[in-house]
From TrEMBL:
Keywords: Signal
Signal peptide feature range: 1-21
Name the UniProt record assigns to this protein: Capsule assembly protein Wzi
InterPro entries: Caps_assemb_Wzi, Wzi_sf
Length: 493
């Protein structure tokens, strides 16, 4: 029933805006998608990094509608505004409606304010082929938020346009989340903070550009109810602790306010005459091991090549990508440099039971695996929401054109080692001491996982587009799965 109402609502909206589409910045589209997957699981690449817009497992039909107003591009305006709405209705073994996007935005010169749920990615990666950013990959539904940003690189005039900056400041709401601490209520309101800042060295027309940036994320809120009398920081001061990551002094139970984590990114790109080369590195930071250079091995490394030549051949590659993700160290190995806080335990947290996730999906890289997505029988610690965060991944992506079709392929192979709570290390550092570690029989044995994806899409006449995709998983981390879908879209603009 929800799918029917969604279809009627967007059809009515389309009739309203279709007459304005050719002479305004309004765009409207409607898609009908048929999918079939394994009854138990949706293949990894049919659900990962899709902003939560995925079908239900098994045979299903989906209707996706979108309505968008963009900024004007025909002439530059000092002030402009826009909005976006995208909804998805799934009908299969279950029926559901998902609000994928719903926001309003306004621009003043280089500054932008956005309010609502939006598709968001943060980090130096390729937006279409990447395995996913460490900080914000687009794997989950967008968190409702207020976002103040310089969204595009702005070249500072007084420095000869050699230095450019961009970034954003976000305050968001995750709703009530599971809390795990003492006598605290089991669910409390949780807020989301994000600060990103990026710099670019090189003129806009320079072939070589250097990049560096930092992303800081915090899940926090209702600390007084969580920690009781142990929490004595006033609310305004507490927010300062959230923004700066400052440690709390004088409490054995509180090190920092909230679940604080993020990434440090750097890279470069170079424009050759016919191709563009991009190289990047994202480094994890969590509990503070980076200060002691104890987890330098961990991070996401990527190289991409983009073909700058126009499509003139029947078969032509457009983009190639190679990424390696390594998260196995976490400052927890016997030979790792000493840290007072022990292993990082990426994305898991001792207070926020669901760790760095939103509505059942990881906010960062999807290759760190939550319990409910893993194959049954994997060893796990009861305190871990993500039961596999020690990963060694090799990921390949390719985009090519054949005649009028555009093809996208992804191939990923990972070795997976669970978490440090389910590892067989003899001890690790914690509170300035070597803490013996004996998981007994509850050891996560190394397992491999292979996932592949192929998509083809083509523009037809009269605003119609067709897309098909197929994917499968083979391995011992996830359930073996297969699936595919066909989608027809009508675009009004």
């Amino acid at each position: 029933m929800k799918c029917i109402w969604l279809f009627l609502a967007f059809t009515f909206a389309g009739l309203i805006f279709q007459g304005h589409a050719q002479r305004s910045t309004f765009h409207y589209s409607m898609s009908v998608e048929g999918s079939i997957t394994s009854l138990q699981s949706i293949p990894f690449w049919m659900q990962a990094n899709r902003f939560g817009s995925v079908p239900v497992a098994g045979p299903s039909v989906s209707i996706v509608g979108s309505l968008r107003k963009d900024y004007r591009t025909d002439r530059k305006r000092l002030v402009d505004w826009g909005l976006s709405f995208e909804g998805r209705g799934n009908a299969g073994k279950t029926a559901e409606f998902l609000l994928i996007e719903g926001y309003a935005k306004a621009r003043l010169s280089i500054f932008e304010a956005k309010v609502g749920r939006a598709k968001s990615q943060i980090g130096l990666v390729d937006s279409t082929l990447s395995s996913g950013s460490i900080a914000l990959s687009g794997n989950a539904l967008g968190i409702p938020k207020v976002d103040l940003a310089i969204p595009e690189f702005y070249s500072i005039p007084i420095l000869g346009r050699r230095l450019a900056i961009k970034g954003n400041f976000v305050h968001g709401w995750l709703g009530k989340t599971d809390i795990r601490f003492g006598n605290a209520p089991p669910k409390l309101n949780t807020r989301f903070h994000m600060l990103s800042a990026y710099g670019r060295l090189g003129k806009p027309d320079s072939p070589l550009k250097l990049y560096a940036g930092i992303n800081h994320m915090v899940l926090w809120g209702d600390e007084q109810q969580i920690f009781g009398d142990d929490f004595t920081i006033a609310s305004k001061k507490a927010y300062f602790y959230v923004l700066t990551g400052k440690k709390v002094v004088g409490s054995e139970n509180i090190s920092k306010i909230g679940n604080q984590l993020g990434s440090i990114d750097f890279g470069f790109d170079y424009d050759f005459p016919t191709v563009k080369l991009a190289v990047y590195r994202q480094h994890f930071y969590d509990k503070g091991a980076i200060r002691y250079l104890a987890n330098l091995r961990d991070g996401l490394n990527g190289v991409s090549l983009t073909n700058k030549q126009p499509v003139t051949q029947k078969l032509q590659w457009r983009k190639l990508l190679l990424e390696v993700l390594f998260t196995k160290n976490q400052a927890g190995e016997i030979w790792s440099p000493w840290t007072p806080s022990g292993p990082e335990h990426y994305y898991n947290h001792s207070v926020y039971a669901d760790g760095y996730s939103y509505r059942g999906r990881g906010i960062g890289t999807p290759f760190i695996t939550p319990r409910h997505m893993a194959r049954e029988g994997q060893a796990s610690a009861p305190q871990d929401y993500f039961i596999n965060n020690r990963v060694f991944l090799t990921h390949l992506g390719v985009e090519a054109c054949y005649q009028r079709w555009t093809f996208t392929g992804k191939v990923s192979y990972s070795r997976n080692y669970g978490t440090y709570w389910t590892s067989d290390v003899e001890y690790f550092w914690f509170n300035n001491q070597r803490v013996p570690h004996d998981p007994g029989e509850n050891v996560f044995r190394e397992v491999g996982q292979f996932s592949a994806y192929l998509e083809g899409k083509k523009k037809l006449s009269n605003g119609y587009r067709v897309r098909y995709s197929t994917a499968f998983d083979v391995g011992n981390l996830l359930n073996n799965a297969w699936g595919g879908n066909v989608c027809v879209t009508k675009i009004f603009q």
